[in-house]
């Protein structure tokens, strides 16, 4: 019980500091070190019967417990950098390069063109969400995809009669389902679940994702039509002083460049156990192959010096992802390690068992907790990376599938963060369209809440 009280106090402290927009990496690392130190002190006082397990399994002690606290960080960093870290960095690097050479803009334009044949603005809105969800599989940056769609899809929607608020709300939500092999969170979830990325994507994410996508599209139809009728002219009011003209364009690239962003996904779909099982590709390898193909395409039409200079953006983005996402993964795991070391998780598991809750009730509680954390923090990554490492042991104790708890957690963070007025994609879309972020989340809350409910129901049905 002492460990639970300490963990609760540290968690409250961590959440309060995160709400002040402090860097999550340092906050979680600091919180994790405090918890691990507390575990060591509790062990010295005889309060931990099993001893303080502050190092990951298989990692040898330095011989001094003070150094072991930092050995825990270095061992987590080395293991994650070689695995999920490289995957996240390569996917982000390729996405950035596609944007640099204009391929992402061309693909987004292609995807939005079929919508122009429809005359009903709300039917177009619903279909636009589905198109955006497909584009999200190839352009995993929520803010990046939103900005591309603000240039390509937003004018089409407004011209067809949708209000500015409706169009902006739709675009802000297209990346709410964090799915596919190019998603860092999805890859991390697959690794935690002990399966390859494509198995997680095809067997688990797609069946749930298709139904949730349709449900959110339908909810957008009714929600935006209702609010447009209720708001009247206010639905088109914008602050012209903050509206900015984006320079996102094709950068003179040929029209066939629109296929380049799809190459990694095509490679991963073809070369795996579902299609050609004699050749297996992992995500980083697919990204590097696609990057090489894209550079060859660029060398055909540009001077080598220019192409190589632009190609460095791939590696620059990899470095940025290490500094932001990979360090966040490590910090989250250290914090989770601290919760385990103090005996908090074991205590919570036993307490939950005594309540006699069924597996699905536990899943709903977990999803509710992490969804609220995502809305409050304005980020899905921080709470997910902090608590995902705990899921396998938690699921084992309750005799349920890891996926039953892990996948809803991972998908709920994307759905919930779009209901936060401080999340990056909402702020970006609001700033680009001259609309208040609070007015925007008023329009996104119903579709996202409905999506969460449908996601939970589908997970229960399929598992």
UniProtKB/TrEMBL annotation:
The chain crosses the membrane at residues 29-48, 94-111, 123-153, 165-189, 201-222, 256-276, 283-301, 321-345, 357-378, 418-439, 445-462. It is a multi-pass membrane protein. Pfam families: DcuC. Keywords: Cell membrane, Membrane, Transmembrane, Transmembrane helix, Transport. It is found in: Cell membrane. Belongs to the DcuC/DcuD transporter (TC 2.A.61) family. This is C4-dicarboxylate transporter DcuC. It comes from Sutterella massiliensis. The lineage of its organism: Bacteria, Pseudomonadati, Pseudomonadota, Betaproteobacteria, Burkholderiales. The gene is dcuC.
């Amino acid at each position: 019980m002492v460990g639970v009280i300490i963990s609760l106090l540290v968690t409250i402290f961590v959440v309060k500091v995160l709400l002040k927009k402090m860097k999550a990496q340092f906050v979680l690392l600091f919180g994790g070190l405090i918890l691990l130190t507390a575990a060591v002190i509790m062990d010295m006082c005889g309060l931990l019967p099993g001893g303080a397990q502050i190092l990951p399994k298989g990692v040898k002690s330095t011989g001094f417990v003070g150094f072991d606290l930092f050995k825990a960080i270095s061992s987590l960093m080395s293991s994650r950098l070689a695995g999920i870290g490289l995957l996240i960095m390569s996917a982000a690097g390729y996405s950035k390069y596609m944007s640099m050479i204009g391929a992402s803009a061309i693909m987004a334009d292609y995807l939005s063109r079929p919508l122009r044949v429809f005359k009903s603005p709300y039917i177009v809105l619903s279909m636009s969400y589905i198109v955006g969800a497909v584009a999200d599989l190839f352009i995993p940056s929520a803010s990046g995809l939103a900005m591309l769609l603000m240039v390509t899809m937003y004018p089409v929607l407004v011209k067809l009669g949708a209000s500015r608020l409706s169009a902006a709300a739709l675009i802000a939500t297209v990346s709410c389902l964090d799915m596919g092999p190019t998603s860092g969170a999805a890859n991390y979830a697959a690794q935690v679940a002990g399966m390859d990325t494509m198995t997680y994507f095809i067997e688990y994410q797609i069946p749930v994702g298709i139904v949730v996508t349709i449900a959110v599209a339908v909810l957008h139809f009714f929600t935006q039509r209702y609010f447009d009728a209720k708001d009247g002219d206010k639905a088109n009011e914008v602050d012209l002083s903050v509206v900015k003209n984006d320079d996102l364009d094709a950068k003179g690239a040929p029209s066939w460049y629109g296929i380049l962003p799809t190459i990694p996904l095509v490679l991963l779909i073809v070369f795996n156990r579902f299609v050609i099982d004699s050749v297996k590709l992992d995500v980083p390898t697919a990204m590097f192959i696609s990057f090489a193909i894209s550079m060859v395409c660029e060398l055909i039409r540009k001077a080598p010096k220019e192409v190589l200079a632009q190609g460095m953006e791939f590696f620059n983005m990899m470095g940025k992802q290490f500094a932001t996402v990979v360090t966040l993964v490590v910090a989250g795991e250290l914090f989770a390690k601290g919760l385990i070391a103090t005996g908090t998780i074991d205590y919570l598991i036993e307490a939950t068992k005594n309540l006699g809750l069924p597996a699905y009730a536990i899943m709903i509680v977990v999803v509710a907790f992490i969804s609220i954390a995502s809305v409050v923090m304005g980020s899905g990554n921080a709470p997910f990376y902090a608590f995902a490492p705990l899921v396998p042991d938690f699921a084992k104790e309750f005799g349920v599938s890891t996926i039953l708890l892990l996948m809803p957690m991972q998908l709920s963070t994307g759905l919930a963060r779009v209901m936060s007025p401080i999340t990056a994609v909402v702020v970006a879309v609001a700033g680009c369209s001259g609309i208040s972020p609070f007015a925007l989340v008023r329009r996104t809350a119903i579709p996202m809440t409905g999506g969460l409910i449908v996601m939970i129901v589908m997970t229960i049905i399929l598992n």
